[in-house]
Amino acid sequence: MPLYEHVFIARQDISSAQVEAMVEGFSTLLQDNGGSVAKSEFWGLKTLAYRIKKNRKGHYVLLNIDAPVAAVQELERQQRLHEDILRYLTLRVDELDAEPSVVMQGKRDRDSRRGDREPRRDGPRGDGPRSDGPRADAPKPAAPAAAAEAPAADAPAAAPVPAAEGAE
Predict the structure, then answer these.
(1) Quick check: 123 and 130 in contact, CB under 8 A?
(2) Which stretches of 12-81 are assigned E, i.e. beta strand?
(3) Above pLDDT 90, what percent of the chain?
């Protein structure tokens, strides 16, 4: 049977439990039509790049599907009719990934990094010192040298500027 990766976006107004119930319903639909869901991942509530049907956010879900073409067509037909589905995309792939998707790997990496590091002592983005003053460990500026204030011995003397007429 052909293999597919199917991603859909559900409205932001519904709960995560309702999204999970929709995934179960779609899995049952695929099984009834001779297919199966190898893996499902709930990516969470994410901000959309642009508004879709007056929604600024959406629940993203990935399904790895092993099903005949007719089952996938029926799944897409059901999702077109479902009022809580904003968008969907189905891609045919050569093989299904058993590992977590890139989106889930990024979440796991971010979560593991948060526990290992010490708190930031620099700016809010971590790119430099804060703008509210000098850092405590910043080097102090050097005092100006006395030689810099005195004119150099081999420098030519400045020519006197003639005074304007009538000025005293």
Answers:
(1) yes
(2) 36-52, 55-66
(3) 54
Find how far residue 125's CA is from the centre of its chain: 14
The 3-state secondary structure of 63-127, one letter per residue:
EEEECCHHHHHHHHHHHHHCCCEEEEEEEEECCCCCCCCHHHHHHHHHHHHHHHCCCCCCCCCCC
Among candidate residues 15, 13, 21, the one with its CA nearest the CA of residue 56? 13
- Which tokens belong to 139? 């080097």
What is the pLDDT, as a whole number, of residue 78?
A: 95
Count of structural domains within the chain? 1
**pLDDT (tens digit per residue) in 69-112:** 999 999 999 999 999 999 999 999 998 877 777 888 776 666 66
Which residue segment(s) compose the domain that 30 sits in?
Answer: 3-97
Burial category of 19 from C-beta neighbours within 10 Å (exposed 0-12, middle 13-18, buried 19 and up)? buried
Residue 30 lies in a domain: yes
Is the pTM higher than 0.90? no
**The CATH number of the domain where 90 resides is what?**
3.30.70.60
User: Could you give the CA distance from residue 125 to residue 137 in angstroms, rounded to a whole number?
Assistant: 19
